[in-house]
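Structure (tokenized):
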């Protein structure tokens, strides 16, 4: 399994996101490479479908289902909905579902909690 964490330099949410991904890989007993990839300009943001820092892709697919069809790419911060509040780091539940979804090969975002 390949997990890419795209980020902009200075993003305070980068390291917590990376740590959460690694923790959840262990929790669900999956092995995978976690790559941290800087995004430095609008052209590279478009190329990697970067919706803000941090953006996490599992096997090339954004962890947030609603973002998979978005085209709001750019060098900026990203917020994730966690219930009714917005957070700069995706929730453990969101990452866990994406990992399990990738493991099963089902990218329709199964509701696994």
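Design, position by position:
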């Amino acid at each position: 399994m390949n997990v890419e964490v795209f980020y902009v330099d200075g993003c305070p949410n980068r390291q917590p996101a990376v740590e959460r991904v690694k923790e959840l890989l262990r929790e669900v007993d999956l092995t995978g490479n976690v790559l941290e990839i800087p995004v430095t300009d609008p052209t590279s943001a478009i190329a990697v479908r970067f919706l803000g820092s941090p953006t996490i892709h599992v096997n090339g697919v954004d962890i947030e289902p609603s973002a998979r069809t978005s085209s709001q790419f750019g060098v900026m911060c990203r917020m994730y909905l966690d219930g009714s509040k917005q957070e700069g780091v995706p929730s453990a539940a969101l990452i866990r579902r994406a990992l399990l979804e990738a493991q099963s090969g089902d990218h329709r975002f199964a509701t696994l909690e």
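Reviewer-requested clarification: Strands lie at 2-7, 33-38, 55-58, 61-62, 80-82, 85-87. Residues 109-113 have pLDDT under 50 and may be disordered.
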